[in-house]
Amino acid sequence: MSRPLRIAVIAPLRYPISQPHAGGLESSVWNQVRTLRSRGHRVVLCATEGSDFLDGGPAEFTLPRPVWDDESLATDTTYPDGYLDRAFAALDRAMEYLRDHADDFDVVDNHCLHGLPLGWADRLGIPMVSTLHTPTLPALLEAHASCGEPRSRFLAVSRHTAREWAVEGIETTVVPNGIDTDRWMLGPGGPDLVWFGRIVPEKGAHLAIRAARLAGRRLVLAGRIGDADYFEREVAPFLGNGVEYVGPLGQADLAELVGRSACALVTPVWEEPFGLVIAEALATGTPVAAFDTGGVAEVAGSSTGARLVAMGDVEALARAATALAEGAAHDRHLRAAIRDGVVERFSLEARAATLEGIYSALADGFAGEGASPAADARHHAGLAPGLAPDLAPETVGA
Fold first, then answer.
1. Which residues form the Glycosyltransferase subfamily 4-like N-terminal domain (predicted)?
2. Is the sign of the CA dihedral 345, 351, 357, 358 positive or negative?
3. Most C-beta atoms within 10 A of its C-beta, which of 3, 70, 244, 273?
4. CB-side exposure of 107: number of CA atoms within 13 Å?
């Protein structure tokens, strides 16, 4: 890093960037802002009201938060009537502010899942980096295609996600998410299984309940209910008799819960873009039994504390969890070894160093209109001292 950078971060709509985190995306943005600020950069966050890090930013960077007449109707895939009209108008004002104050910023770091910020990429006067956290989204593809001279550089959170977007002609650099290993500390383990994350159909909490019952172990579920109908239909009827739901927890309480568990169950029934809960659980030394789908295998890596089974195979998941829990119980050094591998691979500091190289290269290239973004990506792929080789940035093209 040659100088402190001036960065505008555009967060996703819907949920505040605050604890307890609404999901892995919000957690990743929160950690990114905090880490970059700690490294001396000026980072201004554009996010919904109630977010952390909004103090000191322009009023235009505080976006409206959705308000439901009936909170039980809230989901992770819908919005209250009229909300998007208000949110998009506010987001447009934020982008206009950036355009009018382009000299005050070196780069825009876009995490929005809607296409509006990306549609501004060719007229901001500031280079943009857009991180792809999900499978392909038509709104983002359309916004990128609509730019007269597309000016956004794309990052993907996993090789799996990068390959999905490459099919649509989007070239990306893979920069995996990181975790705060100073907050996800080694735990003592315990007898129970744990499942944590967003309680929505695609995360498969109901399958974790079935696996725990087959394994004959108590299960603790933690997380925000992102689909009330799903919870009432597939989770609530099976609570009790060894299955407990403790609600959404703050990071410290969640890390303590996971760290005193025998094994974490990770049960996505979709093409998981990354799987942050895997890295978080392993950082506490708690083994992980997971469905092998999407980017899960990349996060699990070669960890001795992770076993993957075919997606939906509940019996195999129960067997894997039993074996992992028994192995950790009989080897007092195993939990520390599990944690050591994650600390090396998912450091927030190493990830921030990678981002600094990408930001600086893009800002310098924008100013000089020199090398192409793809060439910059390849040239700066080594600018992250300490990043594990299997997670070093790589460019995935169409």
1. 23-183
2. positive
3. 273
4. 27
- φ, ψ of residue 308 to 5 degrees: the values are -110, 140
CA distances from 216 to 155, 209, 267, 272, 294 (A): 42, 11, 18, 27, 28
CATH of segment(s) 193-345: 3.40.50.2000
Peptide bond into 20 cis (omega under 30): yes
Inter-residue contact 60 to 36 (CB < 8 Å)? no
The predicted-structure confidence for 135-169, as pLDDT tens digits, reads as follows 999 999 999 988 876 667 999 999 999 999 999 99
Tens digits of residue pLDDT in 225-281: 999 999 999 999 999 999 999 999 999 999 999 999 999 999 999 999 999 999 999
Q: At what angle do helices 314-330 and 334-345 cross, to 10 degrees?
A: 110
How far apart, in whole angstroms, are the C-alpha atoms of residue 87 and residue 101? Answer: 21
Radius of gyration of the chain (CA): 21
Query: Cβ distance 272 to 247 under 8 Å?
Result: no
Residue 261: Cβ-neighbour burial (10 angstroms; 0-12, 13-18, 19+)? buried
Q: Which residue has 């943005």 as its token pair?
A: 29
CB 200 within 8 A of CB 227: yes
Distance separating alpha carbons of residues 317 and 207, to the nearest angstrom: 9
Q: If we measure between CA atoms, which residue out of 257, 262, 288 comes closest to residue 275?
A: 288
Q: Could you give the residue ranges of the DSSP H alpha helices within 67-111?
A: 83-100
**Residues in contact with 309: Cβ distance below 8 Å, sequence separation at least 6, in sequence order:** 289, 290, 291, 292, 316, 317, 320
The residues of the chain that CATH labels 3.40.50.2000 are 6-178+347-396, 193-345
| Fold observed for domain 6-178+347-396 | Rossmann fold (3.40.50)
